[in-house]
Amino acid sequence: LPCCTVITDPYQWVKLLVRPTVWLMTTDDVHVNFCIISCILCLVNTMNRNLICGSSVVLTLQLISDGGVVYAEALWDHVTMDDQELGFKAGDVIEVVDATNKEWWWGRIMDSEGWFPASFVRLRVNQDEPMEEYLARLEEAQAGEKDRAGLDLLLGPGLPCKEQMRTNVINEIMSTERDYIKHLKDICEGYIKQCRKRTDMFTEEQLRTIFGNIEEIYRFQRKFLKVLEKKFNKEHPHISEIGCCFLEHQTDFQIYSEYCNNHPNACVQLSKLMKVNKYVFFFEACRLLQKMIDISLDGFLLTPVQKICKYPLQLAELLKYTNPQHRDYRDVEAALNAMKNVARLINERKRRLENIDKIAQWQSTIEDWEGEDVLSRSSELIFSGELTKLSQPQAKSQQRMFFLFDHQMVYCKKDLLRRDMLYYKGRMDMDHMEVIDVEDGKEKDFNVSVKNALKLRSLTGDKVHLLCAKKPEQKERWLRAFTDERRQVQHDLETGFSLTEVQKKQAMLNACKSHPAGKPKVVTRSYYDFLLRQKHPSLPTALPQQQVFMLAEPKRKTSTFWHNIGRLTPFKK
């Protein structure tokens, strides 16, 4: 804009807010003035957002440094093929060990540790579990005025702990449901309605791609909220019986499947439009005219995906604080299972479609690849890890990295110096393999003593592969993984899930277009000291996507050449 050419520093525009007449009257074009206002407000909101985000990280670091245990709850699945990253599913609870880096945190689940994107989780509002403390005190205080007074101080006046907690959960469900309806209304009336007026900017096909069937979801959710309101007891929320509402409409929630599967396409289409300034100004104008909160359009479009994943979490909390004698208990229990199945089906379909790009990206990093692409038969990484492999007739011991997909298992060799580089060495057809648990001791086929071993025998030939893990726990994990692989194949057959040729080709095309990662970022000394204490010292170099559904693969990790070269025997000597 001509009126903007004088000021090159965007932060200078903020200073002009106190003197609006200086710049607002530089042009008579209302659209231009409105766009300038939109840009300034967007800039101010961005600055505020950064401050809030920073304060959240500082609070988390403070809790950890004080010796407290900080837990986070997974909002989405984090699927990874890197042993330095921590994989988890939506709803998993992660112990946050370090949050020094605002993009990637180090966490722990059971006996697994690794990096994970901070944007994929939310910190628990209440880090302590009140029910555990309550039950412990209840066992100690069977009777006695003094102990009972202590319980009163713990629980506070009013309802008993469990009923109060159920009240809180019910109120949260109703509150979030009303907020969600407001979000959907803003999208339908604030964006879609305005977009349809601008036929010069949007085609009907574009709008269908960007917004999917969100209008259908809006109509259903309004009807669902009315049913919830009828069952909601405002005076005594803990008495409310809302479990039946979810049971009656469990099939209606399946309309989210279409929306979630389309969401990656919506992100791609929207990102293309946002490269053009007039669309950026238009969408921001829509947001301000509708008086919507400061969330970008892609953030609003993510809310239905988040919502369908949140229902099982809310119902699980409701069941936890519902007495088995409560009239709503059985319905809530059934509703939880029903919504878990709905969310699981939707999430699985969506994740499988998104992961094909990650698999294609992974394959493109493997050196000396031979044979057909992984996507020609597979669409899911089940498990990966390092094993010692012995195969007939040589029976030579080899260290290999194994990647178990549905229908096949690929194994690679690590580079001697660059341990992050893999060379393709072969694959196994799991559809024609039998997995055998091998006891510790002498193995008859190979005539060697083994420990933590399992055997893969071909059903169509004489090939036998002996695989040995370092620990018994790793062996058990691999046995479970092979069982999961067969279960996944059977489930795909029953549900009819398969990839189209177009999806496979597009994924491989995207992988070919990807660029290598740039230079690693500088790490501060304090953070470097922390890295040296960790089991996996390489911090992921890629910025995690704020939306898990953006079909993006983290960049290649920083080379650990100097870290690993010291481990080699000649250098030790």
UniProtKB/TrEMBL annotation:
One of its GO terms (molecular function) is guanyl-nucleotide exchange factor activity. GO terms for biological process: intracellular signal transduction. The keyword Iron-sulfur does not apply. GO terms for cellular component: cytoplasm. SMART domains: PH (SM00233), RhoGEF (SM00325), SH3 (SM00326). Residues 67-126 form the SH3 domain. It holds the Pfam family RhoGEF. Keywords: Cytoplasm, Guanine-nucleotide releasing factor, SH3 domain. This is Rho guanine nucleotide exchange factor (GEF) 4. It comes from Mastacembelus armatus.
